[in-house]
Amino acid sequence: MRAFLFIGLTLFGALTARADIYKQVDDYGRVTYSNLPSKGAKKMELPELSTV
Questions:
Q1: Strand 31-34 to strand 42-43: parallel, antiparallel, or no bridges (unpaired)?
Q2: pLDDT tens digits, the chain, 52 residues: what are they?
Q3: Are 22 and 45 in contact (CB under 8 A)?
Q4: Three-state secondary structure call for residue 32
Q5: 43: nearest Cα among 29, 23, 25, 26
């Protein structure tokens, strides 16, 4: 049972670690990063995460 729990949590963590990141610059030059798209935000292309 513990093995299934460990595997489930590990897979869940791996799936949530990869998210889309959006960058928005407002009229005053303030930069905001978010995982939710908003008006004027651009999706950032991030390099792949290295795993061991």
A1: unpaired
A2: 787 777 776 766 655 556 789 999 999 999 999 999 988 899 998 887 777 7
A3: no
A4: strand
A5: 23
